[in-house]
Amino acid sequence: MPRSGSPLIAPSLRSEESIALMILVAYLIIAIVLGGAIGAGINVLATRLPADLPLRGPALWTGSEQPNARWRIPYLGTRQPETGEIDWPNLGTQLGAAIVSLAALYIHGFSFSAVEAIVLSAVLLTILRIDWQHHLIFLLTIWPGILIALVFSLATSPQALLSAAIAGLAAAAAFLVLYFLAIFIYKQRALGLGDVFLAGLIGTMVGLPFIAQTILLGMMAGALGGLFLIAIKVRTRKDYIPYGAYLSLAAIVVVLLVS
Fold first, then answer.
1. Mean predicted confidence (pLDDT) in 55-77
2. End of a domain among 110, 145, 175?
3. How far apart are CA 174 and CA 186, in angstroms?
4. Is 198 part of a structural domain of the chain?
5. How many domains does the chain have?
6. Distance CA 120, CA 114 (A)
7. 121 neighbors 249 (Cβ within 8 angstroms)
8. 161 Cβ partners below 8 Å, 6+ apart?
9. Whether residue 3 has pLDDT greater than 90
10. Residues 83 and 176 both lie in one domain
11. How many CB atoms lie within 10 A of CB 3?
12. Fewer Cβ in 10 A, N or C end of the chain?
């Protein structure tokens, strides 16, 4: 008879560890593929929208605004063949999308929640990228995002849809008040109207239970990020702080955790 702690238990444990490792490797491979595809799509929007170009067409090289003929090649297509220079915003977007996809799969597994988190995060990554580089938030990225968020909420439950709609309206209304309050007190805008619409989008994504925490997290990230950039002399106190990018980053974290 085997004694307690017998090595007979070891093969079962090794089998479970092997399965877990295989699943993790599968997550990583899927995330790399998804990150390249999602990031390439985001790069098209992030380079062509600010340049006021039709969306049908290749992504542009950052800085030169010349078409990138290699934009469909994930990761490797971010290197200019003539000069060998790396398009870091392009590569960073693809890597960011891969990290988000991996996090969604690791947290939620192969599930509807993982799909929801990846899709909503892709919308937010697009807004983050554009606002960070160009200090612009396009309604073309907001309204489809709201529609997508509402569809996911409806697929969850009617209560989730109601929560998303109320949270979106409440967040947009709160930011609209701040928008006019800043103009009244400081005689200048502290927020853009794009931030107002973005708050509405984030509200529809996270719903009533998490909207206050998400907005607070985004504002704290913006304040700390701004102070850090000022401290390392990348920006000055008079420079614009892309709060939309920080709000989007905070929303990505919450979406990944609570989808």
1. 90
2. 110
3. 18
4. yes
5. 2
6. 10
7. no
8. 150, 153, 154
9. no
10. no
11. 7
12. N
